[in-house]
Specification:
Elements lengths: L10 E4 H15 L3 E5 L3 H4 L2 H6 L4 E3 L4 H13 L3 E7 H7 L1 H9 L6 E5 L17 H6 L5 E3 L4 H13 L4 E4 L4 E3 L14 E4 L4 E5 L3 H14 L4 E5 L2 E3 L3 H11 L2 E8 L4 H12 L4 E6 L8 H7 L4 H14 L1
Parallel strand pairs: 2-3, 2-4, 4-5, 5-7, 6-7, 10-11, 10-13, 13-14
Antiparallel strand pairs: 1-8, 6-12, 9-11
Length: 319
């Protein structure tokens, strides 16, 4: 399933690109697939769907709340709607509609946020979404997916189309390092163990999965055996895998491109508190970032393999 036994980071398509391409495939297979966008088709990559199915693309303009409401209506009319915008826009501006028109009545709407995290770069903090995992997980009935690369995104989009109920998928702007072979298989709600390990477990999601794999390689050279779990499904969370990791490795590090106060790390800690308490360290954001080149921002705000390695050393001292 993993590209290489000893991981080497190689760029693949952006997860937003994988979303756009997969949407076209679904559109060809099912005439009930429809799409809503908020004046960002070229950025969210729904432009591919719009070119092939112009009558099934609903351009809602810069009105994300209205887009969510239209999507909910289309779902109630029997369609399978995907609505998409930058995560920062669709989750914050559309939250009331997501809550009242989608989550509460359990409507079959698929919401795809693009340009998540700080890796969007020069667009700046107003368009960086570092809260949407918390917002999406707060909505009852929602499944929340955070794929690491192209293969995982294709699975997530296809799974969402088949699932009866609301789904949020988190995607990003930059090219995503390849983690999986194209024929990799996934199961909703089940973490993927990418690397076995006995000393510590690195729990990662999205863009940080590749960094976790690099960190595991560095730790192996130091004689530290690090298990790596890809949490592609943040809700429902694979509490069984986390409990097993806590019992077998005794310490965990959670890595995410999101605020640590409200993201995956909080959910992991909550699960461990119920199942098997263990020391945990957190790699993520403690506040908003600034405008800059994506790689420079990931370096400055500590979202790299080296930061994960440092966190592993800290947690092992507490083990």
């Amino acid at each position: 399933m993993l590209i290489a036994a000893k991981y080497e980071k190689k760029p693949g398509p952006a997860t937003r690109e994988a979303f756009g391409r997969t949407l076209v495939e679904l559109g060809r297979e099912n005439p009930d697939i429809v799409v809503g966008d908020a004046d960002l088709t070229k950025s969210t990559m729904t432009t591919y769907f719009a070119k092939e199915f112009p009558d099934r693309l609903f351009e809602c303009g810069i009105a994300e709340a209205n887009m969510v409401a239209i999507g909910a209506g289309l779902a109630l009319a029997g369609k399978i709607p995907f609505v998409s915008s930058f995560s920062a826009f669709v989750m914050t501006k559309g939250f009331e509609q997501l809550r009242v028109l989608v989550a509460y009545p359990n409507v079959n709407l698929k919401v795809v946020g693009t340009h998540s995290g700080i890796s969007i770069g020069e667009d700046g903090p107003s368009q960086m979404s570092v809260e949407e995992i918390a917002l999406a997980c707060a909505l009852p009935n929602f499944v929340v997916l955070s794929p690491a690369d192209e293969a995982a995104t294709k699975w997530a989009v296809r799974w969402a189309a088949e699932h009866a109920g609301p789904v949020f998928i988190r995607t990003g702007r930059p090219k995503a390092p390849v983690v999986y072979n194209p024929d990799a298989s996934f199961e909703m709600g089940k973490a993927v163990e990418l690397v076995p390990g006995t000393d510590v477990t690195i729990v990662a999601t999205g863009l940080l999965v590749a960094e976790a794999l690099l960190a595991a390689g560095q730790l192996e050279a130091e004689g530290i055996s690090a298990r790596v779990l890809d949490i592609h499904t943040i809700k429902p969370l694979d509490e069984d895998a986390l409990e097993l990791a806590a019992r077998e490795t005794g310490a965990l590090v959670v890595a995410e491109e999101h605020l640590v106060d409200s993201g995956l790390g909080v959910r992991v800690a909550q699960a461990l508190a119920k199942r098997c308490p263990a020391p945990v360290e957190f790699v993520g954001l403690t506040g908003y970032a600034e405008s800059g080149a994506p790689d420079e921002l990931l370096d400055k705000y500590g979202l790299r393999a080296a930061n994960i390695v440092d966190a592993v050393r800290r947690v092992l001292e507490r083990k």
